[in-house]
UniProtKB/TrEMBL annotation:
UniProt organism field: Orrella daihaiensis
Protein name: 3-oxo-tetronate kinase
Enzyme Commission code: 2.7.1.217
Superkingdom of source: Bacteria
UniProt record similarity statement: Belongs to the four-carbon acid sugar kinase family.
Domain Four-carbon acid sugar kinase N-terminal: 6-230
NCBIfam families: OxoTetrKin
Signal sequence segment: none
Domain spans labelled Four-carbon acid sugar kinase nucleotide binding: 254-416
Record keywords: ATP-binding, Carbohydrate metabolism, Kinase, Nucleotide-binding, Transferase
Entry-linked InterPro entries: 4-carb_acid_sugar_kinase_N, 4-carb_acid_sugar_kinase_N_sf, NBD_C, NBD_C_sf, OtnK
Reaction catalysis annotation: 3-dehydro-L-erythronate + ATP = 3-dehydro-4-O-phospho-L-erythronate + ADP + H(+); 3-dehydro-D-erythronate + ATP = 3-dehydro-4-O-phospho-D-erythronate + ADP + H(+)
Length: 425
């Protein structure tokens, strides 16, 4: 097996498919693994994205898992390492963006790296170090109400500083809108000043291409998935339509959603408006009476024959606050993830062959419960969200499955209906 070029570590599962999607679109052959594989890669690939579920776990565990992923990727010959986190810089006060970046830098002997969450195709831009989502600042975008990582400061230099032992700097738009040479020059200047991590402005894809070119010699790059569009060219790779071909879809269609992001809320509402069958979970009632889970499961299984069924815990910020007050934020998150994962497994066992999962944490829980080990990346549905293909390993069965892991804030309002149409051959 030939060596891989780019080794990627993603802090959640939707983020991993988002990155894999951008790499495939720029011509790389990509394998996405679920967790760190036990064995060497068995197929040829230009890049491997190791999906972790490390965004909101304790920093020391996130570091440990990321270093294990790094060791495996280096074992596959990776020439450059890419740490992928959310384009909305999702982190708690402790991390995990800072601690994981520090640990990877140390392990790689890297004195300098970049932090580039910008993803203009999905409306995430960075200007003077301030992160915008669409036309509003990060802290006005709904991310201030995120269940696990509320983002209340849009200034990324300020957000990153308390999370890292390195000095944090900024490469601003004057360099990134100018030329790759100007960006390289800024990298050098900051490095000389003792800066270890530079937030990098980017408002358009051309900026990302220049940043990518300037980053060719960095051992480690970090960011959202947008940065990926500028990297394959450094390895002489060009776009190639064949890279996104998947087998034909089979089975019934279902959606499970534990995402409380604004975009998902609108997508759930739209699915219901269009007449789709939707089953709402009530976490507080469920925590008091576990038999409700069986009730939801039976409802979902009976509805499958009629058309795509949606099972969701998606709720408004006001409701979320109430549930979290009753159950605790992290505890509620874990319980809901477990319940949704359990229903997803039943749906797949009952014949669902096309499954959409909304929410990064939720996707991690579902993919792990399904026993999926590896995913191939197919056509993009909306920016940042492709269809993927893999095998669920449930009891003794290996079940082929098309699965789409939708980041909370990604996707058009009709995503839950449109996605299945994209898959039709
Ligand atoms: N109704 C709810 N009450 C409390 N927590 C919830 C509820 N619905 C979902 N959650 C939790 O909120 C978190 C959502 O995170 P995630 O799946 O990454 O989606 P997103 O980031 O789009 O909101 C998960 O841990 C999920 O279990
Ligand atoms: O970079 C992004 O925005 C996504 O790839 C991502 O990581 C989103 O996470 P969730 O909103 O938790 O799905």
């Amino acid at each position: 097996m030939s060596s891989i070029l780019l080794g990627c570590i993603a802090d959640d599962f939707t983020g991993a498919t988002d990155l894999a999607n951008n790499l495939v679109r720029t011509g790389m052959r990509v394998v996405q693994t679920v967790g760190v594989p036990d064995e060497s890669l068995t197929e040829s690939a230009d890049a491997v994205v190791v999906s972790l579920k490390s965004r909101t776990i304790a920093p020391n565990q996130a570091v440990q898992q990321s270093l294990a992923a790094l060791a495996w990727l280096r074992g596959q010959g990776a020439k450059q390492i890419y740490f992928k986190y959310c384009s909305t810089f999702d982190s708690t006060e402790q991390g995990n963006i800072g601690p994981v970046t520090d640990a990877l830098m140390q392990a790689l002997g890297a004195e300098f790296t970049i932090a580039t969450p910008a993803f203009p195709d999905a409306g995430r831009t960075v200007y003077q170090g301030y992160l915008f989502v669409g036309n509003v600042l990060l802290n006005e975008s709904g991310m201030q109400d995120h269940p696990l990582t509320p983002m209340r400061d849009p200034n990324l230099v300020r957000v990153l500083k308390p999370q890292t032992a390195h000095s944090v700097g900024l490469v601003d738009y004057r360099a990134t809108t100018n030329s790759a040479a100007a960006v390289s020059e800024q990298f050098e200047q900051l490095r000389r000043q003792g800066v270890g991590i530079a937030i990098v402005d980017a408002v358009g894809n051309d900026d990302l291409l220049r940043i990518g070119q300037a980053a060719a010699d960095l051992e480690l790059v970090t960011g959202g998935s947008g940065l990926a569009i500028g990297l394959p060219a450094n390895f002489g790779i060009e776009p190639n339509a064949q890279a996104a071909k998947l087998p034909e879809p089979t089975g019934q269609c279902a959606i499970v959603s534990g995402s409380c992001s604004r975009a998902t809320q609108a997508q759930v509402a739209n699915f219901i408006e269009q007449g789709g069958t939707a089953i709402a979970m009530d976490p507080v009632a469920l925590s008091q009476d576990s038999s409700r889970l069986e009730h939801y499961r039976q409802q979902a299984l009976s509805a499958l024959a009629v058309g795509p069924v949606l099972v969701y815990s998606t709720t408004s910020p006001e409701q979320l606050v109430k549930v979290q007050a009753a159950l605790g934020a992290m505890q509620a998150g874990e319980m809901v993830e477990k319940w949704i994962a359990s229903i997803a497994c039943s749906l797949v066992q009952a014949g669902v062959g096309q499954l959409i999962v909304a929410g990064g944490e939720t996707s991690g829980a579902v993919v792990q419960a399904l026993g999926v080990e590896q995913l191939r990346i197919g056509a993009q549905i909306d920016p940042g969200v492709p269809w993927c293909y893999g095998y669920a390993k449930l009891q003794t069965r290996s079940i082929p499955l098309h699965i789409s892991l939708k980041s909370g804030n990604f996707g058009a309002v009709d995503f839950f209906t449109k996605a299945f149409k994209v898959l039709v051959p």
